[in-house]
Each structure stands twice: as C-alpha cells, then as structure tokens.
Amino acid sequence: MTTHKVHVTFPGRLLFIGFGSIGQGVLPLIMRHIGGLAPERITIITADDAGRAEAEEFGIRFINHPLTRENFRHVLDPLVGRGDFVLNLSVDVSSIALIKLCHEKGALYLDTCIEPWPGGYTDPNIPASRRTNYALREEALELRKSHPNGPTAVITHGANPGLVSHFVKQALLDIAADTDVDVSEPKDRDGWAALAQQLGIKVIHIAERDTQISSIPKVPGEFVNTWSVDGFVSEGCQPAELGWGTHERHFPRDGRQHDFGRRSAIYLTQPGCATRVRTWTPRAGNVHGFLITHGESISISDYLTVRDGERVVYRPTVHYAYHPSDNAVLSVHEFVGKNYEMQPRKRIMMRDITDGIDELGVLLAGHRKNAYWYGSQLSIHEARDLAPYNSATSLQVTVAALSGMIWAIENPSAGLVEPDDIDFRRNLEICMPYLGPVVGKYTDWTPVTDRGRLFPEDLDEADPWQFRNVRVI
Fold first, then answer.
1. How much is the pLDDT for 263?
2. Of 155, 20, 27, 17, which is closest to residue 84 (Cα–Cα)?
3. Is residue 403 within 8 Å of 380, Cβ to Cβ?
C-alpha cells in the first residue's frame, strides 16, 4: 500500500466553493497530503450536483446552493470562521468579494483565477478594458492597500496561472547555468527581473499542447473540453491580453493600452478564442495556439519589469499560447462560427479519454541559446496511475492548487499574494511527483522559421521575437 507524504497539518475547517472537474480532482490530493482534515470539517457548496457521488464517497457534506451577489454572505457566514480555509474553484462568484469576506473572518483563501460576478467577462455594456484580467488583477491588488497583511490569500494559483510562474524561475536558473552566467539565486522581485534582463529574455510563452483524445467523438451542438467548459468559454470571450515587452517595435493595429494601473499589459479588441499565435513545444513542435487571456501573462511581465525610477527599462512580452484538445478546437470553431452563441450541450472529457498528453510549459526566448522550453509532459495514463478523478489536464491544476494551499497554511499571515511572490522551490517540491516527465529543451525554432514558403510575408526578420511575427494573421 502506497504511503503518501503529509506535508502539513491543518486544524481548521475547509470550505470548497465550486466542485467541478478541478474540485473533484483536488479533493483526494488534499485528503492525502494535508493532515488533520476529518471529513466532518469539510463542506462543499456548489451550483449543481456535479461531484455529489464523490463527496458521499468521502463522507463530506455537499450543498447545492448557487451563490449570488445578494446571498453569498448569508450562506457562507456559518461556514467560515477564524483559522478556516476557503478554496474557491467556482465560476461566476466574485473572487474579490470572497477575499474580503475571508479577511474579515480571519480565514485563509486560494483561487485558481480571479472571477467576477456574472457578466463581468462578457457584458458589452462594460468597457472592454474593464472586462480584462488586467482590470481584475488591478482590483485584487488594490486590496493590499485596504486589507493589508492579515490572513493569507493566494490568488490565481492553478497550473496556469500558478505553476507556470514557478517554471519560469527554474527556467531562468537553467538558462543562466547553461550560458555560463554566474549568478546566485535571486531573493526578491528586483533580483529575478534583473536576471531576466541580464539573460536577454525577450519573450515568454506559456506554451501548451493538449493531445488527449476521447472514445466519444464531438457531435454538432456540443462543447467538449478536458476541463471546465464554462471556464474556458468565459476566458476565451474576454479580450486577448498579453504582457507588453520593451523590445517590441510594432504596436498592433487592434491593440489598446490601459489608462490605469501598472501598464504592464495590453489587450486586443477581439476575443482570445478568435486570436491565434505561433509557439513551440518539444513533443508537438510548431503549434498554432489561441491567445487566451490569463493572469500569468500580466503578473509575470509585471514581476520581471526593471525600472529606473518611473521609467520602464526592461520588460518581456508574455502571453499564453494554448492548443487545447482536438475536440475542444472543434468546439471553439463551432462556437465562434455561431457568433459566440454557446452550444446547448457541454461535456468534460474524463473517463472517455483513451490516450494523449498535456504538454504544459514555458518557452523563454531571445537569450544566447535562442529559446528554452521547461515544463510537464503528463499523459492520461500517468495521471490515472497517480490520482483518481483526474485527467492529465486537471492533475496539473489540482496539484498546483494543493501546493498553494500548503504554502498558505505554512505561511498564514502573508496577506494577498500572487504565485510570483511565493516560494517556487517549495511549490515545485510538492507538485513534481504528479507532473510526469518534467523536461527542459532548447530549440533553434523562431516564429519566422520556414515562413514565406508558400507566399511572401511581411516579417521582421531582424528580430524574430517581435509579436507581429508570433501572431497568426
């Protein structure tokens, strides 16, 4: 019988908000690796009956009661108190509202993305700039002023955003070692930013290719995905966003800058699920991915910014380049073709997955060795051997949510923090056993490799890592 390491003991209550594919996948990991959590001290509150059978298997209280702007305080008040933990894995429940509640109650908090109330992503009456992850992040970071210190609230700590920020730090150290740059491991934001600048990092892609396939083909009128359909559609309908680097010479015609906040990112006046970009992963090679907005595109580029006073002297361009499973690509194609009208049926691939991997990593480019990909190549078969109720995609998220929880329990008074702010080595230590092969690969590939084969293209070959060369027009 396998004995799993207990990383930390937690004496409080645990409240799940939302219990979709990620909630269902993280529960057995929590029960394995966080000691002291008896089932009677865990409650699940969610908006449907998904996962009820698993909750009953573990003997955990399950409440089907959708949370709204009007009722959430009344519903949660008896379930959250000092020393408890709120794990927010929901959609359409405001992260900001929950963080404020946890601060008042003295409870710890973690989410995997910053969620607004319904309509916050897609309401056309809200200006596009305010429907961005940039705006949501700025609102969350403002809580550091109004709610300083206090109980730890870890925001955006899943696979991405989350785990990939830790991959970036390890990749920077790998590149430094492999290019004979003699540096000690940075201890703070300024040190990491200076290292990225010293190495000449121009671009960071969160480069992901999901090749998992199902025994059940997608049919017309169905949206199929390997994780939350609602979550993917919501973020896919937001404006495409990217951290904007100081090396860029060609501002996109449909690009827009923000007139508030840290100015580390821009957005495009079109949704991410209709915007494609070029990237590379070791197993897949050349990839056309969707430029889906994600919190890490903004936080990493902000974290690695070097300033001289108020002047920005260095910042990398950072964005997500996501090629989901083939069923999901077909689903997005149908969804966009119907002018963003959601299909009547939804399906999350899980038990029907027969083969494939989720190759998730970070591609750091522009340095002396051109480009370096570092990340996880987790297969569905390995995922099933490692943990129940998980696919390769979900396990990369759930183990990162677990590691963030453990870090928060070990550091309960850190206030509001992002993945970039916390101990990357501790998080990688917890995650590594669940990530399958974790590899680092150098490549000579650039976005202009083999371009112009069929037709001439207007490329900036003097600097292949310009965003105009990456974007698929």
1. 93
2. 17
3. no
Structure tokens belonging to residue 216: 């059940």
* Pairwise CA distance, residues 6 & 36, whole Å: 10
Tally Cβ neighbours within 10 Å of residue 365. 26
A 10 A CB-CB count for 405 gives 28
Q: What is the pLDDT of residue 119?
A: 86
Place of tokens 């150290």: 173
Say how far apart CA 334 and CA 152 lie, in whole Å: 41
Predicted pLDDT at 125: 87
- What is the distance between the alpha carbons of residues 325 and 241, in angstroms, rounded to a whole number? 22
**Predicted pLDDT at 148:** 82
Q: Mark the ranges of the chain whose per-residue pLDDT is less than 70.
A: 1-2
CB 30 within 8 Å of CB 402: yes
Q: Which domains does the chain carry?
A: 8-154 (3.40.50.720), 163-389+430-472 (3.30.360.30)
Q: 329, 213 in Cβ contact below 8 A?
A: no
Q: Look at the block and give the residue holding tokens 């004979």.
A: 180
Tokens of 462: 């003097």
Per-residue tokens: 466: 């310009």
pLDDT at res. 1 = 45
**Which two three-digit tokens encode residue 425?**
């080595």
Three-state SS string across the chain, please? Answer: CCCCCCCEECCCCEEEECCCHHHHHHHHHHHHHEECCCHHHEEEEECCCCCHHHHHHHCCEEEECCCCCCCHHHHHHHHCCCCCEEEECCCCCCHHHHHHHHHHHCCEEEECCCCCCCCCCCCCCCCHHHHCHHHHHHHHHHHHHHCCCCCCEECCCECCCEHHHHHHHHHHHHHHHHCCCCCCCCCCHHHHHHHHHHHCCCEEEEEEEECCEECCCCCCCEEEECCCHHHHHHHHHCEEEEECCCCCCCCCCCEEECCCCCCCEEEEEEEHHHCEEEEEECCCEEEEEECCCCHHHHHHHHHCCEEECCEEEECCEEEEEEECCHHHHHHHHHHHHCCCCCCCEEEECCCCEEECEEEEEEEEEEECCEEEEEEEEEEHHHHHHHCCCCCHHHHHHHHHHHHHHHHHHHCCCCCEECHHHCCHHHHHHHHHHHCCCEEEEEECCCCCCCCCCCCCCCCCCCCCCCHHHHEEC
Partnered with residue 373 across adjacent β-strands are 363, 441
